[in-house]
């Protein structure tokens, strides 16, 4: 029940960007699924602001249509940045990423110190061992997240020209 309510709230809070019909399907076990394909037992959802899908042409009609026109990657009047300006932007970007990396590495060191190899000090309000275990698990998750952030930052820095 919680999952379907969460999914409904998530869907309701997001703007509709669907470019085709969306169906709500409920299987025999009561599980709900959103899909773009109609199946038995599915109900077409009327999403406000959704862009209707173009009508699909049958193969006979599609064969008669001319090929779609090729579009340029960017319009001719699209503003260009000269090499010197781009180099300055790349330098700024690298500096920002380096600062973020140093900050994340510092945060990771602090998290690992507090984690104390999986045995952090118990706090006064943790007389209940389950509460302590929950905090240790959260600390482990935070360390893992920080390590992943560091990996992502290093990859991004490697991609900067």
What does this 3D model show about the protein?
- The structure is a single chain.
- The protein has 4 helices and 3 strands.
- The protein has 2 domains: 2-53, no CATH class; 83-159.
- The model has no long low-confidence stretch (mean pLDDT 79).
- It has helices at residues 2-13, 59-64, 83-115, 129-159; strands at residues 22-26, 32-35, 42-45.
Keywords for this structure?
161 residues, mainly alpha, 2 domains, 3 strands
Number of domains: 2
Overall pLDDT level: 79
Number of helices: 4
Series of secondary-structure elements, N-terminal to C-terminal: HEEEHHH
Integer-rounded radius of gyration: 26 Å
Uncertain segments:
none
Q: Note the overall shape.
A: flat
- Strand order within the widest beta sheet: 2-1-3
Number of strands: 3
Estimate the helix proportion, in percent: 40-55%
The proportion of residues in beta strands is 5-15%
Task: Assign the structural class, choosing from mainly alpha, mainly beta, alpha/beta, alpha+beta, or little secondary structure.
Answer: mainly alpha
* Largest sheet, strands/sense/barrel: 3 strands, antiparallel
Distance between the termini: 49 Å
